Amino acid sequence: MSWGKLAASVYRSAKQVSQDPRLVSETEVKNRMDTCERCDLYNHHTKRCKECGCFMTVKTKFKGTECPIGKW
After folding, report:
1. pLDDT: is 1 or 72 the higher one?
2. Rg of the chain over all Cα atoms, to the nearest angstrom
C-alpha cells in the first residue's frame, strides 16, 4: 500500500469517527473482527487491513466506521 493511499484512508476513517464517535457493542466488535479475520485482505500478523491499512482492532470499535470493501 502506498503512503498516499494509507494517508487518504486514515483521513477517511478519522472523519467517520469525528462525525459519529459512538462505540459499538462488544458483540458487534467481535462480529466485525471475525469478518475481518476471515477476509483475504486481513493481515493476521499486524492486525491491519491490506485494503485500507487501518488497525482493525481499533477501527471495528467505532459505529461511524465501515469496512473498505463493504463487509460490515
Report:
1. 72
2. 11
